[in-house]
Amino acid sequence: MCLIKDDIKISRLTNTLDRLHVPANHYPLGNAKVIFSLMGIPEEEHNFEIYYKLIEQGADLERCDSNEKIAELAEGIFRQLMGV
Fold first, then answer.
1. Taking Cα atoms as reference points, which of 31, 25, 27 lies closest to residue 59?
2. Which residues of 60-75 are buried (b: 16+ CB within 10 A; e: fewer)?
3. What's the CA gap between 70 and 79, in Å, rounded?
4. How confident is the model at residue 60 (pLDDT cuts 50, 70, 90)?
5. Which of 24, 30, 35, 44 fits a disulfide with 14 by CB distance 3.0 to 4.6 angstroms?
6. Is the pLDDT of residue 74 over 80?
7. How many CB atoms lie within 10 A of CB 11?
8. CB neighbours of 30 closer than 8 A, spacing ≥ 6?
9. Per-residue pLDDT at 27 exceeds 90
C-alpha cells in the first residue's frame, strides 16, 4: 500500500505542476505496472483506467488534506484492485 500512497502523492504533485503550466504529466513513472505486478493484477487497459481514475481522487486537496486521508484512499484503492 505504500506504493499506492506514494503514487497518490506523485499524482498530486504532477497535477499541481500542470496547473502551473509545468508539463510534468509528460513523464509517467510506470508505478502502476510495478504495483500491478506485485499485487498479481493483470496489466489490462481496463485495470489501468480504473487505477488512474482512483489515483486522481487524491488530487482533491480538500478531500485528501492529510497523510491519514491519503492512507485511507490508498487502502480503498488497494481493496478495490484486489476485489475486497
1. 25
2. eeeebeeeeebbebbe
3. 14
4. confident
5. 24
6. yes
7. 19
8. none
9. no
Residue 39, all three cell numbers: 499485487
Q: Which percentage of the chain shows pLDDT scores above 70?
A: 94
Model confidence at 23, in pLDDT bands (50, 70, 90)? confident
DSSP 17-84: HHHTT--GGGS---HHHHHHHHHT----HHHHHHHHHHHHGGG-TTTT-SHHHHHHHHHHHHHHHHT-
Backbone angles phi, psi at 69, to 5 degrees: -70, -35
